[in-house]
Structures are given as structure tokens and as C-alpha cells.
């Protein structure tokens, strides 16, 4: 008896519902899912995943960074390995699907392969990364950095809000942090890394498509801009003589908005503003704001940055305001492998779906895994583009579509010589 794609999709839905129960908060109370690295909730979800993996005939292991890895073995013991996975952790009061869907869907894939006696010339390792969000330790991409071999031991000294170090938390979880370097994969043993993730945006829904292919993971930079004016009485200083820092901030916000709307593949936001002295009848003397720019093309982002800082300088000089500027964070974009992106596009077409290629405006484990191997990503439609929120939602039938794309992707990889 064969297993249908609908059955695999329905099982994925049931697993996702069950996984959402392992949370500090409860979705039934509209508080979303909160699951942090190396906590009781993390342990319980890994126990459930282990049970589901073993029921599929997979071998299961926990590495020293608390990544859970289940292997669907090839008929060839010396075969290379296709890594597929995502993160188990969430933001506080997050949704059911960000991260976890990318762990569950490859299990549904394995279920379908086994149910239909489909053999592959490579192993499939399904990975539940321990920590991508960095919610507990600010240890962003912990799990994937370990597998990629770029983990920095200094990260083990980071602490959570209770002062517990990452090292101590991993030890309490049953890991040996001193052995983390041994958990890396070697490039020679890996075919590629695939991640399936909710889109976290509205483009697929607007296009009425269940899935889309990711071309790149965005580059990000953040800035702090501090604008200096002069405080004064709001009722006595003439408007023409004022040096209002908050007025300068408004102009900066306008410049960011215009630049991002007029520049292809660029998005940005002024997300944080602090104003001083912050009195109702005092002209603002100092306004500090954040600027974030994102683009899948580093040259676009860097060119936009240069232009923006120049424009800010001109605008604030006109207002007789001074400013200081600091680049506080920068992360380069990562391009998905062209051959793997093409393979995913072809697999989407195999399913009778129009392939839409789009870039990811959010970071993912692929940022770290790209240091190990070629990466590819498949997006699944999410309702109204909402993510990192309890109302995060997907359509059950889209899970079936994603499983089908994964099946065709694996079959196309099996026919590819060489595999990478």
C-alpha cells in the first residue's frame, strides 16, 4: 500500500499542532509559542521529535550544541548527506510555524519516501537546530554555526537573564560543550543544505501561490544616528530661530522612506527613537534614532548607505543641526546556490505550480550553513504575511504542496551527476 502526499501533509499538520504544545506560553490563550534553547520545553519537543523520527526508522542523535539530528539512511553506506532542517526555538510569544515547520516537513518527506519505497543515493539528515533566534542567550545561529564549523567558543560565556551561561545550560541539557568542534560536518560529506520556512511576508499570498523559491537571504546593517540641536522654551523661541532635533529626525525618517521606496531590492526602517529632554513644552535638543537597511545585494545596500548619509548631512546642515553616526551592525547577504535554486524551481514546476523566485528579508540558518555547503530555501505561504506573532497561520494544503516539492527536489538531486 502506497502513502499519498495528502496523508504526508496531514501528518505534518498533526505533528505541528503537537509540537506547539511544548511552550512556556499556550496558544489556546492567544499567547503564542515560547520555546527557548536548552529549556524544559526544548527537551520535551526533542523527545517528541525523537519518537517521531524513530517511528520512521531514522537513527537519532543529539549533538553537543543541543541540535537534534535524525538520519534517513541511503541504501549506500558511503553516500553523501543532504541536510534539511530549521530551528526549534521561537521568539517570545511567537507562532507555531516559524522554524518548526522546517523540521516537520522533512519528516513528512521521509514518511512519504518510506511509504512508497523510494530510495535515494544520499542520506537525508533532518536537523532541529537548537537556537536560531537567540532569544535566551542572544546566541543567534548557534546550532547552524556548530554544524558549519564556525562556532566561536567565546559564545559559551554569554548569559541569559538569570545569569546562566550557555556553557552551563548546555551541560545541564546533557551536552559536552568542550566537544562542540567535533560536531561539524565536513564539506566533502554534504550534498547541500535545504530549509523550508514560512515566508514571513505577503508576496506568495498576493500571488495565490502555496510555495516560492528563495534566491538570497538578505544582508542587514543597522545604524545609530544622534542629532544635536538646542533646547529652549517652546513658547518663546521663534520658529525661524529654532534648532529642533526632532524636526531633523523627521527629515531623516522621510529620507529613509523615500530612498527605500525608490531603490529596487532595498527595504529599511527607523524603528527606535529616543528624544531629550522629552518635555511637552521644551524644544528637543537631542534625538537618537536607529536606521536599518536590508537588501539581498550587498552592493545595493552599501551604495544606499553612502547616499543616505550624504543626504542626511545636507538636510541637517540646512536645519542648522549637527549629527553623529555609528554603524552598529552589519551582516552580508548570502546568495542561494544557483544550481539548487534552479532545481527547486524545476521541482515546483513538476508539481504544476508557477515558480516564483523571491528573496528573504529575514535571516535564517542558511546564513551560517553557507559557510559549509551550497544552500537552497523554499518558502511556504503564510496568512497575511504575519510572523513572530501568535496569529501566525498557514493553510494545511500548502504543507502537502511543500512535501511534493521536496519529493521532486530529492528525485532531481538523485538524477544529478555529480550531486553538487
TrEMBL record:
Query: Keywords on this record?
Result: Hydrolase, Manganese, Metal-binding
Instruction: Please tell me whether the keyword Hydrolase is annotated for this protein.
Output: yes
Q: Which domain of life is it from?
A: Bacteria
UniProt cross-references to InterPro entries, sorted A to Z: Amidase_Cbmase, ArgE/DapE_CS, Bact_exopeptidase_dim_dom, Peptidase_M20
Q: Which CDD domains match?
A: M20_bAS
Q: According to its UniProt record, which cofactors does this protein need?
A: Mn(2+)
Task: Work out whether the entry's keyword set contains Transferase.
Answer: no
The protein's matches in NCBIfam families, at most eight in alphabetical order, are given as:
hydantase, PRK09290.2-5
Similarity field: Belongs to the peptidase M20 family.
Assembly description: Homodimer.
- The protein depicted here goes by the name Allantoate amidohydrolase
Where does this protein come from, organism-wise?
Billgrantia zhangzhouensis
Amino acid at each position: 500500500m502506497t502513502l499519498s502526499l495528502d496523508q504526508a501533509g496531514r501528518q505534518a499538520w498533526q505533528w505541528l499542532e503537537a509540537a506547539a504544545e511544548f511552550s512556556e506560553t499556550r496558544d489556546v490563550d492567544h499567547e503564542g509559542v515560547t520555546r527557548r534553547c536548552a529549556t524544559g520545553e526544548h527537551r520535551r519537543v526533542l523527545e517528541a521529535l525523537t519518537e517521531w523520527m524513530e517511528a520512521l526508522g531514522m537513527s537519532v542523535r543529539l549533538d553537543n550544541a543541543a541540535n537534534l539530528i535524525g538520519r534517513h539512511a541511503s541504501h549506500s553506506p558511503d553516500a553523501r548527506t543532504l541536510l534539511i532542517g530549521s530551528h526549534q526555538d521561537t521568539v517570545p510569544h511567537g507562532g507555531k510555524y516559524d522554524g518548526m515547520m522546517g523540521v516537520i516537513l522533512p519528516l513528512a518527506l521521509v514518511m512519504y519516501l518510506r511509504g512508497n519505497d523510494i530510495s535515494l543515493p544520499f542520506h537525508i539528515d533532518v536537523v532541529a537546530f537548537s537556537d536560531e533566534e537567540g532569544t535566551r542567550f542572544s546566541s543567534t545561529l548557534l546550532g547552524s554555526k556548530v554544524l558549519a564549523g564556525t562556532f566561536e567558543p567565546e559564545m559559551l560565556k554569554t548569559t541569559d537573564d538569570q545569569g546562566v551561561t550557555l556553557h552551563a545550560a548546555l551541560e545541564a541539557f546533557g551536552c559536552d560543550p568542550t566537544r562542540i568542534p567535533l560536531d561539524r560536518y565536513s564539506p566533502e560529506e554534504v550534498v547541500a543544505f535545504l530549509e523550508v520556512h514560512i515566508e514571513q511576508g505577503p508576496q506568495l499570498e498576493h500571488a495565490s501561490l502555496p510555495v516560492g523559491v528563495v534566491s538570497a537571504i538578505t544582508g542587514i546593517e543597522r545604524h545609530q544616528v544622534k542629532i544635536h540641536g538646542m533646547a529652549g522654551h517652546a513658547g518663546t523661541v521663534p520658529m525661524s530661530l529654532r534648532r529642533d532635533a526632532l524636526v531633523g529626525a523627521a527629515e531623516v525618517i522621510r529620507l529613509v522612506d523615500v530612498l527605500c521606496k525608490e531603490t529596487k531590492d532595498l527595504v529599511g526602517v527607523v524603528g527606535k527613537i529616543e528624544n531629550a529632554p522629552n518635555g511637552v513644552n521644551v524644544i528637543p535638543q537631542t534625538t537618537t534614532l536607529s536606521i536599518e537597511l536590508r537588501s539581498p545585494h550587498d552592493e545595493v545596500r552599501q551604495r544606499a548607505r553612502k547616499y543616505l548619509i550624504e543626504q542626511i548631512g545636507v538636510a541637517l546642515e540646512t536645519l542648522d543641526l549637527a549629527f553623529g553616526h555609528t554603524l552598529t551592525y552589519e551582516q552580508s547577504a548570502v546568495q542561494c546556490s544557483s544550481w539548487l535554486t534552479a532545481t527547486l524551481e524545476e521541482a515546483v514546476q513538476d508539481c504544476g505550480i508557477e515558480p516564483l523566485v523571491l528573496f528573504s528579508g529575514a535571516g535564517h540558518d542558511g546564513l551560517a550553513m553557507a559557510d559549509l555547503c551550497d544552500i537552497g530555501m523554499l518558502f511556504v505561504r503564510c496568512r497575511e504575511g504575519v510572523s513572530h506573532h501568535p496569529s501566525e497561520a498557514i493553510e494545511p494544503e500548502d504543507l502537502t504542496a511543500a512535501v511534493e516539492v521536496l519529493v521532486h527536489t530529492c528525485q532531481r538531486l538523485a538524477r544529478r551527476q555529480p550531486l553538487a
